[in-house]
């Protein structure tokens, strides 16, 4: 086993996590919970709703629909559950032994909870211009499996945290048309870990008996971070007094994640193999870089005030996931770069929703949505994010004790399709991980609370 192979495996895991570790409420790696109002309407009002300054995260021109100055803040709590059913895993075929079963009987659940905060503010500079700032987390996930679970060589812990800083300038071109541009400075920080089958390495080298395969594990933890920069464009058009159209575009962002790898083992047999591997140049603590591109996306929306009490809305979002077709990893020791194929597909998400005003203080919200997964087939699905097509059902309410203050609570339940996983142990990129097969069952609950104040 070469130093290059081990570093390649872990560096690819780092970069892949930064891209695919999306919340269970959205496909791919997206986090869309920047407003309790949009969540309560299943994101159907994201582009054309423009109800408060937090909508700037979806459409920067939203701030042109708000007179005066305003601040808004919120938090979303995500509780996701991943469970692998009918799981099978084994080592790569070993001469004279074949494939060794990796099942130790541990839990196959990997979901954890996550908290997603957001903040936005704007001020009206004059009759033509508005200036805003949005701070939010566009991507992120926290998942953790038991260290003895059947897929431990593919993933144990995954944590991704991102934050976008988006200064925005809106131009009120006419009384009905707003045009906006925003800059995006994005910081990403990732930590992930997985076990290493040091027993298999020792058996191949002859230093351990074959019975050690799958029973003398090591542990690898990878960390990495970077800043990236992009832009967002938006338009909001008041067609009539009752109908509003919105469109927004968010550019791709290039990131170069710099990672550090740390190896360890908590058992005597594994420690002996690890010490020998490090002395020979393998499994040394070190690092590498992976250049990745977070995809561009386009949003189109419509908002219509049907009656004095009832409003209807719809949204469509296209994401250019096909930009994530290959991942190239470079090593700090100057070794030849290596690549792996991802083959993700572009996707669409659609949602519809409605608001009903009980009175001047209470507004009820609800919505439905569907979201395609970018993962093309079982061979590209991973246990870090067992992504699949999903549907949403949401409801919530806004309370306005005064005309200037709004408090909103929203709830979303995510129904995800079952997703088969077929990681082939004979593929070179799975040389140290082995095979992993089964069917993932995924669901999530999201709770959001936000506050907006106009002054």
UniProtKB/TrEMBL annotation:
<keyword id="KW-0812">Transmembrane</keyword>
<comment type="similarity">
    <text>Belongs to the OmpP1/FadL family.</text>
</comment>
<dbReference type="Pfam" id="PF03349">
    <property type="entry name" value="Toluene_X"/>
</dbReference>
<keyword id="KW-0472">Membrane</keyword>
<protein>
    <submittedName>
        <fullName>Long-chain fatty acid transport protein</fullName>
    </submittedName>
</protein>
<keyword id="KW-0998">Cell outer membrane</keyword>
<feature type="signal peptide">
    <location>
        <begin position="1"/>
        <end position="26"/>
    </location>
</feature>
<dbReference type="InterPro" id="IPR005017">
    <property type="entry name" value="OMPP1/FadL/TodX"/>
</dbReference>
<keyword id="KW-0732">Signal</keyword>
<dbReference type="GO" id="GO:0009279">
    <property type="term" value="C:cell outer membrane"/>
</dbReference>
<dbReference type="GO" id="GO:0015483">
    <property type="term" value="F:long-chain fatty acid transporting porin activity"/>
</dbReference>
<keyword id="KW-1134">Transmembrane beta strand</keyword>
């Amino acid at each position: 086993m070469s130093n290059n192979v081990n570093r390649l495996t872990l560096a690819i895991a780092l970069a892949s996590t930064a891209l695919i570790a999306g919340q269970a409420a959205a496909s791919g790696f997206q986090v869309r919970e920047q407003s309790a109002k949009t969540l309560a309407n299943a994101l159907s009002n994201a582009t054309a709703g423009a109800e408060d300054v937090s909508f700037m995260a979806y459409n920067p021109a939203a701030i042109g629909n708000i007179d005066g100055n305003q601040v808004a803040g919120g938090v979303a709590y995500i509780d996701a559950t991943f469970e692998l059913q009918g799981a099978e895993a084994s080592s790569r075929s070993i001469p004279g032994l074949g494939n060794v079963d990796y099942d130790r009987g541990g839990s196959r659940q990997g979901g954890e909870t996550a908290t997603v905060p957001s903040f936005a503010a704007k001020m009206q500079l004059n009759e033509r211009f508005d200036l805003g700032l949005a701070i939010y987390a566009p991507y992120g996930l926290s998942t953790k499996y038991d260290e003895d679970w059947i897929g431990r060589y593919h993933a144990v812990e995954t944590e991704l945290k991102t934050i976008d800083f988006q200064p925005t300038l809106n131009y009120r071109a006419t009384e009905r048309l707003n045009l906006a541009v925003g800059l995006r400075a994005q910081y990403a920080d990732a930590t992930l870990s997985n076990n290493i089958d040091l027993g298999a390495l020792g058996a191949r080298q002859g230093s351990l008996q074959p019975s050690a395969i799958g029973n003398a594990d090591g542990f690898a933890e990878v960390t990495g971070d970077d800043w990236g920069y992009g832009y967002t464009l938006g338009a909001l058009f008041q067609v009539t007094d009752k109908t509003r159209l919105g469109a927004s575009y968010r550019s791709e962002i290039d990131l170069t994640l710099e990672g550090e790898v740390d190896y360890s083992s908590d058992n005597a047999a594994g420690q002996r193999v690890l010490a020998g591997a490090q002395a020979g140049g393998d499994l040394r603590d070190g690092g590498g870089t992976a250049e990745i591109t977070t995809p561009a996306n386009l949003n189109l929306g419509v908002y219509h005030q049907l009656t004095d009490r009832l409003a209807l809305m719809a949204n469509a979002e296209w994401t250019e996931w096909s930009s994530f077709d290959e991942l190239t990893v470079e090593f700090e020791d100057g070794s030849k770069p290596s690549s792996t194929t991802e083959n993700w597909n572009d996707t669409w998400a659609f949602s519809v929703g409605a608001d009903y005003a009980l009175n001047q203080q209470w507004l009820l919200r609800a919505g439905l949505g569907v979201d395609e997964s970018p993962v093309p087939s079982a061979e590209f699905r991973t246990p870090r994010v067992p992504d699949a097509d999903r549907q949403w059902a949401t409801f919530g309410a806004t309370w306005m004790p005064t005309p200037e203050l709004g408090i909103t609570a929203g709830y979303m339940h995510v129904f995800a399709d079952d997703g088969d996983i077929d990681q082939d142990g004979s593929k070179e990129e799975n040389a140290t991980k082995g095979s992993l097969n089964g069917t993932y069952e995924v669901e999530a609950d999201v709770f959001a609370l936000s506050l907006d104040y106009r002054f």
